Amino acid sequence: MDLTWSPAEQEFRADVAGWLQANVPSEPLPSGDTAAGFALHLEWERKLFDARWAVVSWPEEYGGRSASLWEWLIFEEEYYRAGAPQRVTQNGIFLLAPTIFEFGTPEQQDRYLPTMASGEESWCQGWSEPDAGSDLAGIRSTATRDDAAGGWRLNGQKTWTTRGAFCTHLFGLFRTDPSAERHRGLTYFLVPLDTVGVTVRGFGRLDGDEGFAEVFFEDALVTDDLVLGGIDQGWSVAMATTGSERGLTLRSPGRFMATAERLVALYRERGPDAVDGSLRGRVAQAYIDSEAYRLQTLQTVTRVTGGDPPGVESSLTKVFWSELDVSLHEIALDLLGFEAELESPWMKGFEFALSGPIYAGTNEIQRNVIAERVLGLPRK
Ligand SMILES: Cc1cc2nc3c(=O)[nH]c(=O)nc-3n(C[C@H](O)[C@H](O)[C@H](O)COP(=O)(O)OP(=O)(O)OC[C@H]3O[C@@H](n4cnc5c(N)ncnc54)[C@H](O)[C@@H]3O)c2cc1C
Fold first, then answer.
1. Count of the separate structural domains present in the chain
2. pLDDT grade, residue 271 (50/70/90)?
3. pLDDT digits over 288-325, tens only?
4. pLDDT (average), residues 44-73
5. Does residue 224 lie within any of the structural domains?
6. pLDDT above 70 covers what percent of the chain?
7. Are 232 and 260 part of one and the same domain?
8. Angle between helices 106-118 and 35-50 (to 10 degrees)
9. How far apart (Å, rounded) are the C-alpha atoms in residues 263 and 285?
10. Does any ligand 1 atom lie closer than 6 A to the CB of residue 68?
């Protein structure tokens, strides 16, 4: 593997870093998981879009720069290094968009990608239900054909919908053939949240932000052009989204490298003599782990650009980055001692890091996948 960046890639890095230095807000924006913070984050997204930095790897016709995966990684490194705002459009641009590129009709691509990139329309993920989380194939929400009305009637309830209270659209799975085997008979729909019969109810997280919503569907009518990837084909379409969620795009190494660099800075600021000696080794190990994740990602990108799909290894990646994130924040809290109890970005980061082993498929489920599909161990 050649780890040197080409002159063009270095120039790309300098362009990104220069723009971010001139434009990243000097004060952090309020949390994007509050209504007011979300609106301010969307203004930031618009600014990124206008400068064509919102979706660098997308084709130019949709607002991107046709950047390579390598350049995208560079962009991410610089983005997190600059401490730029959290991407509240992430469920759209990182999860749904790759799925629309793969399964969407040209009309769907033209209709949804530009407004997603600009933040004009924002997307949430409607998969989990009160009785279907890990067991996604157990979802009960239905879509029933209504020929007279010319579409599908949605009924049921979704929950844990991140930023559902602030988004304009939801991508969700609904059961279209109740008689089919569990993984079959599901269909992937793109649903405007202002559809008659859809009710969104926001609710608070433990950290106080109203980051979640429950979404209720009562005979909500959606037309055929809102089906992504074919009737009863929802499981394979959803698995493509899942691959993006666990694999490359949702959590790039730049995020963890930037956190590791801040951790080292915190360690230095505290003064090595002032802290428990064992912390020195833990800080070093966390930095090494972040670097290992970066190198592993470079290897994945080499594979993917060579034509291989990310594959089930994305389960390994998901376990690694989510546990790394918890560890980076735990060490910071240990460095801060009692001060960690005060409202601090590290405490807020720690609270969110704790959810990493749960969202995007729990780590217990990922370990089942690794055991069965990577290691070839027998199913229990
Ligand atoms: C911060 C955050 C954001 C989220 N955002 C969204 C979102 O935007 N959209 C959305 O649809 N969902 C979202 N979720 C929901 C998330 O996908 C679910 O919480 C997750 O899939 C687990 O489902 P569950 O909560 O129903 O737990 P359960 O599936 O009930 O699991 C409970 C426990 O049992 C374990 N378990 C279950 N089955 C097995 C098994 N077969 N083997 C071993 N252990 C098992 C699990 O690992 C877990 O520890 C979010 C969750 C969090 C924490």
1. 3
2. confident
3. 999 999 999 999 889 888 888 777 888 999 999 999 99
4. 96
5. yes
6. 99
7. no
8. 110
9. 11
10. no
**Domain of 317: which CATH number?**
1.20.140.10
**Which pair of tokens denotes residue 201?**
């109810």
Q: 353 C-alpha to center of ligand 1: Å?
A: 15
Instruction: Decide: 159 in ligand 1 pocket, CB within 6 A.
Output: no
> Of 88, 107, 132, which residue constitutes the final position of a domain?
88
Residue finishing a domain among 190, 206, 240: 240
For the CA of 172, the nearest atom of ligand 1: 11
Range 153-175 average pLDDT: 97
Identify whether 189 is part of a domain: yes
Helical segments of the chain, H only: 7-23, 35-50, 69-81, 90, 97-103, 106-118, 234-246, 253-270, 278-305, 313-336, 345-353, 363-369
**Statement to judge: residues 130 and 74 lie in one domain:** no
What spacing in Å lies between the alpha carbon of 355 and ligand 1's midpoint?
A: 10
Helical pair 313-336 and 278-305, crossing angle rounded to 10 deg: 150
Q: For the chain, give the percent of residues with pLDDT over 90.
A: 81
Place of tokens 């490194």: 77
> Is residue 147 located within the same domain as residue 222?
yes
- Answer whether 160 contacts ligand 1 (Cβ < 6 A): yes
Determine if ligand 1 sits within 6 Å of the CB of residue 351.
no
Q: Is 363 inside any structural domain?
A: yes
pLDDT tens digits, one per residue of 106-118: 999 999 999 999 9
pLDDT at 209: 86
Distance 135 CA to ligand 1 centre (A): 8
Q: Which DSSP string do the residues of 225-277 spell out, in sequence order?
A: GGBSS-TT-HHHHHHHHHHHHHSSSSS-HHHHHHHHHHHHHHHHHH-GGGS-T
Cβ 162 under 6 angstroms from ligand 1: yes
* Residue 134 token pair: 């890990």
- Tell me, what CATH number does 31's domain have? 1.10.540.10
Per-residue pLDDT band at 1 (split at 50, 70, 90): low
Q: Say if residue 252 is in the same domain as residue 353.
A: yes
Could you tell which of 128, 193, 354, 367 is best to mutate to test the pocket of ligand 1, judged by most ligand atoms within 8 Å of the CB?
A: 128
Q: Domain residues for 217?
A: 123-240
Q: Is residue 101 part of a domain?
A: no
